[in-house]
Amino acid sequence: MTKKQLQKSVDYLISKGFDSPEVGVVLGTGLGKLVEEIKNPIVAHYHNIPSFPLATVEFHSGKLIFGELEGKKVVVMEGRFHLYEGYSLMDVTYPIRVMHQLGIKSLFISNAAGAINLNYKKGDMMLLEDHINLQGNSPLAFKNVGEFGDRFVDMSEPYDMEMCKKLKTIAQKENISLKSGVYASVVGPQLETKAEYRMLKILGADAVGMSTVPEVIVANHLRLPIIAVSVLTDECNPDNLQQVDIQEIIEIAGKTEPKMIKLFKELIKVL
């Protein structure tokens, strides 16, 4: 990745009308309906953006959408990139750097995850308060990282405390159940074995997924305040493990989505 590449992507989006967005949003599996709420949307398909990776997962649609939400200018990433698709971590996090260059001041991330904490159930939402990176690499491990920010990034508080507090208050006010906990990020695309679920529990994870952490690391590298919410789509009980159906995961994410949209919209309003 070079600064020139990044600038080409940004210049293209500015030429399309992407004008100083304040909030960036990354939408996870089965969580695409937020885009229907955007006023005066301008769409840029990934394959048209110079240097942008392409989405390969069939249920990730692959476009950046700019517009207005709750009176704020937003840029929404519909379709994200994963290590399991064969991308590098630099590809996975490239859109975060582009959104930052466009001018976003805060970043919201959503994902679908499995519940390791057995007090959490299918359809619950979990606010990420910390994470465990089990992807075996870092999106900051490249030669010229110093051109983009500090090489050694503090991760003592990866998620913005202020936004987390606001989101909890909104959830309470709206009578929406919002758990909180630790998210473990694995490579995938295979799901975990019973032994792996037991290991994740011992490590202190409340949920497990295949995304989010690389984007969070880069957001911290860019000193970009970030918040992330998991929609828990399956229960990972090693003593009673059910086979997982990806269609069911998408269905559960879809059912919980209106609540997540409500939370994100209300938070955008008070930023």
UniProtKB/TrEMBL annotation:
<protein>
    <recommendedName>
        <fullName>Purine nucleoside phosphorylase</fullName>
        <ecNumber>2.4.2.1</ecNumber>
    </recommendedName>
</protein>
<dbReference type="InterPro" id="IPR011270">
    <property type="entry name" value="Pur_Nuc_Pase_Ino/Guo-sp"/>
</dbReference>
<dbReference type="InterPro" id="IPR011268">
    <property type="entry name" value="Purine_phosphorylase"/>
</dbReference>
<dbReference type="Pfam" id="PF01048">
    <property type="entry name" value="PNP_UDP_1"/>
</dbReference>
<feature type="domain" description="Nucleoside phosphorylase">
    <location>
        <begin position="23"/>
        <end position="269"/>
    </location>
</feature>
<keyword id="KW-0328">Glycosyltransferase</keyword>
<dbReference type="GO" id="GO:0004731">
    <property type="term" value="F:purine-nucleoside phosphorylase activity"/>
</dbReference>
<comment type="pathway">
    <text>Purine metabolism; purine nucleoside salvage.</text>
</comment>
<dbReference type="GO" id="GO:0009116">
    <property type="term" value="P:nucleoside metabolic process"/>
</dbReference>
<comment type="function">
    <text>The purine nucleoside phosphorylases catalyze the phosphorolytic breakdown of the N-glycosidic bond in the beta-(deoxy)ribonucleoside molecules, with the formation of the corresponding free purine bases and pentose-1-phosphate.</text>
</comment>
<keyword id="KW-0808">Transferase</keyword>
<dbReference type="GO" id="GO:0005737">
    <property type="term" value="C:cytoplasm"/>
</dbReference>
<comment type="similarity">
    <text>Belongs to the PNP/MTAP phosphorylase family.</text>
</comment>
<dbReference type="InterPro" id="IPR000845">
    <property type="entry name" value="Nucleoside_phosphorylase_d"/>
</dbReference>
<dbReference type="InterPro" id="IPR035994">
    <property type="entry name" value="Nucleoside_phosphorylase_sf"/>
</dbReference>
